[in-house]
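Supplementary Methods, section 5.1.

A reviewer requested that the exact input to the structure prediction be made available. We therefore reproduce it here, unchanged from the version used in the analyses.
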Amino acid sequence: MPTITWETGTAYDFIISLLVLHHAANFGLRPSWAAGVRQRISSPRRDFLERMYSYAGSGLEWVCNLPKPKDASIALRVAADLAPADRFEALTLAGEVSADVREVLHTIADQRKATAVDRDYLRANFIQRGQHLSPAALENLIKVWSNLETSGEHLLAAFQEYYSAFFEEEETRIRPALERGLAHARELAERLQVAALVEELSHGVRIADLEMVRSLVLAPSYWTSPLVFHVRPKPSQALIVFGVRSPVESVAPGGETPDLLITALKSLADPTRLRILRYLTGRPLAPAELARLLRLRPPTVTHHLQALRLAGLVQVTVNEKNERRYAARLESLNELSIAIQEFLTKQD
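The structure derived from this sequence is encoded token-by-token as follows.
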């Protein structure tokens, strides 16, 4: 079984929060609030980030290799010391991007343009967060890599402005939650096996090849909740960034109703999702199997499974090929009931 290394630092949330703010609905966050935060950044840099995050990865492999303490200020300092081209690649391309795709991107950077062959290759082979690029995202990818040095400078300036405009204050707010989350996770590790620990911290994720990993890095994050990030910074090493935000807390400071609570209740209010939960109570199923049972298109089923995952209502097992099988997580219904009671009786 792997050796566990515990890490904490606001650099994880700094990087993750930028991704979440540009894909708010995927993380159960109100898009209008996320847009309001992005508005704090000046228009040219905001537009640059929106284009970049149409295809960019999380950058967590890079954060994992930062020196301690892994806080946002350290991340910005290290990023500033990198050559612009190296900075841009490290912070936008995930480890899952293949060597062949990287080679094509470097050719585009050298030639400052993409050929028709380059476009076709990237359209077929560029995979980020498990998906192919949309036409608009593909054009954004080619545009920034055609001006790689300039893109690296824009990225640093945008990150620095985001920190001063929003995250510096946010960093102070979330530190206590990160410390509490890390302490709770370490207490769980005293009595759980590694696989059970990961499933508990991730609210239902099982990683099939975890026993093959020699080094497991676990880091708490406020903005990740209720999901989990799982990346491989090095061979035989896995990084899992797990959420520590309480269901009765909102990522939006001063939010009247917690995002996680709203997401869970909305998820249960959908008849198709209730049918999915009923099927998953019987046995674990892959999205394609559910699509056949429900007579729905696979993308529709995937959308519903994402909503159930955000609500913590399904368990997902991920194998070494990144294939997923889902099962109902009925114990989360009890957790939801407790969260509702806690919210309703909480004194402001």
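The chain has a mean pLDDT of 90. These observations are discussed further in the main text.
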